[in-house]
Design goal:
mainly alpha
Length: 160
């Protein structure tokens, strides 16, 4: 094989691999956002858990319920992170196959296609899981807002 042909081949593969590399950058941004969101929700859970421990049994109800909801949010964000990491790993495999395919195994085109679809599926699952977590968060905030505005509420600002 001619040296110039090899350079041109590698150059072409690099061009093809750039699109998945940009996708990888986008997934990294999503992971960064999810990690920050997870940290904030875990901090909220710790705060609520510490408050529940110090309350009498009859006062634990609303705070304990919010702590349970917050823990559900932690679980959802964790699943969203898992799905996003799986998508990133699949994209990394795609990039590797794009390089290896031309040199070692010229028939990987189908595999790359299937892996790309799999990456999009798990990325979609990550975003759908995030959407579910955001919906739970919004519902919880709306319930707290209604509780604060309720004139019959015994403890208005103390619970927040």
């Amino acid at each position: 094989m001619d040296h110039s042909t090899t350079v041109m081949t590698v150059s072409g593969i690099i061009e093809i691999a750039l699109a998945p590399a940009f996708l990888l950058t986008g997934i990294a941004a999503i992971l960064s956002m999810l990690t920050l969101r997870l940290a904030r929700v875990v901090d909220r859970w710790r705060f609520l858990h510490a408050r529940v421990v110090n309350l009498e049994e009859q006062q634990r109800g609303p705070i304990s319920a919010e702590a349970d909801t917050t823990w559900r949010r932690v679980e959802l964000i964790t699943w969203s992170i898992r799905f996003a990491v799986m998508a990133a790993l699949l994209v990394c495999i795609i990039i590797a196959l794009l390089f290896l395919g031309d040199f070692a195994a010229p028939y990987v085109g189908g595999s790359v296609g299937y892996l790309f679809v799999a990456a999009m599926v798990v990325l979609t699952l990550s975003l759908a899981t995030l959407l579910l977590e955001v919906s739970i968060s919004t519902t919880t905030m709306k319930q707290k807002q209604e509780h604060l505005l309720d004139p019959n509420s015994k403890s208005r600002l103390e619970d927040n």
